[in-house]
Amino acid sequence: MMGFTKLKSELRNKAPLKLAVAWGVDYAVLRACRDALDLAFIKEAVITGPENEIREIAVQNQLDLNGFTLLDSHSPAEAANKAVYLVKENRCDLLMKGHLNTSVLLRAVLNKESGLRTLGLLSHVALIELPQPRLALLTDAAMNIKPDLGQKAQILDNAIDFAWSIGLDNPKVAVLTSVETVNPQMQDTLDAAALSLMAKRKQFRKNAIVDGPLAFDNAYSKEAANLKDIDSPVAGEADIFMVPEITAGNILYKAFAYASGFLTAGIIVGAACPIVLTSRSDSHDSKLNAIAVACRSLKR
Predict the structure, then answer these.
(1) Are residues 292 and 252 part of one domain?
(2) pLDDT by position in tens, the chain (length 300)
(3) To bridge 141 with a disulfide, which of 17, 147, 249, 260 should be the other Cys (CB 3.0-4.6 Å)?
(4) Are 69 and 179 members of one domain?
C-alpha cells in the first residue's frame, strides 16, 4: 500500500524535474514549490506573474527564492501562455495552476497552435489518501460535466494509465452509480456495465479490473457489499472511483477532503504533460502532494 509519504520518499532517488507555474501570485503555491525544491522533487520552479508582487509575497513570508526563476507577466492570460510555452518548448517538464481561474489556464493549454492538447480527452484525477494509508483515484470531479459513454471510456482510460504511472499496477476500478444493478431506465448503470465489459475485452491501454455499476457504499466497504450479497472483485478495494458526472464527483471529492479530513491532490491528465490543478482554497500540503504525484507520474 502507498500513501503520499511513501510516494514522496520514492522520488528522492529520481532525477528532479522543472516546473512551470502559471500566475504564481499565492503564498501557498510558492511555499509548495519551495518545499518541492528542498525535497529535490524539482530542480527549478519557473513562476509567471507580476514579479514585484511575487517578490513582495516572498519577503513578507521570509520565503527563499533560490531555485526560482520569475517571468514577469501583467495578466493571468499572459502568464498562462508563458507557462504553457515553457512546457511546449521542453524548457519545463510539468505545468501547475497558480492563483488564476482554471478556464484561463485551460484556454492556453487547449490552444490548437501553441497549447499542450493531444488527440485524447483531458480529464481530472483527484488522489485521496484513504486509511491504511493507501492512495485511491477519483475521476472526473472537475473537468467533464456530463460525459457520454465514449467520453467516459476516455476518462477511465486516462485514470487507469495514470494509476499505472504512479505505481498502482493493475488497478481495481469501481464505476459508481446510485444503485448496484443494471436498470434500463438509468443510463449511468448501462454505461457502467459497458465499461466493465470493455475492460474485460482489453479495450483500454493498460490492464485494470473494472466492475460496475456499484453504489458508493459497496464500492468503499467490503462489509457493505457482503451485507447486500454483492460479489465484486473491487468491493472495499477500489483503487479508482469513477463517478457518472461532475456534480457527484465534486461533492464526493469535497466530502473526502473536508468532512473526512483525508489528504488530497489534483491533476489534469490527457495533455502533453501532467497539469497540477488544485483549488485556490487547497492547503499548501495539498499543492505539494499534487506536485509530488505529477513528478512521480513522469518518473516511471
Answers:
(1) no
(2) 789 999 999 888 788 999 999 999 999 999 999 999 999 999 999 999 999 999 999 999 999 999 999 999 999 999 999 999 999 999 999 999 999 999 999 999 999 889 998 888 999 999 999 998 999 999 999 999 999 999 999 999 999 999 999 999 999 999 999 999 999 999 999 999 999 999 999 999 999 999 999 999 999 999 998 999 999 999 999 999 999 999 999 999 999 998 999 999 999 999 999 999 987 777 888 899 999 999 999 865
(3) 249
(4) no
Nearest to 124 by CA among 145, 141, 148, 106: 141
Strand partners, 79: none
d(CA 150, CA 103): 23
Asked if residue 40 lies in contact with residue 12, where contact means CB atoms within 8 angstroms, the answer is yes
- The domain in which residue 214 lies consists of 119-266
Write the single-letter amino acid at 64.
D
β-pair partners for 137:
127, 240
Same domain membership, residue 146 and residue 98? no
Judgement on whether residues 255 and 283 belong to the same structural domain of the protein? no
Q: What's this model's pTM, rounded to 2 decimal places?
A: 0.94
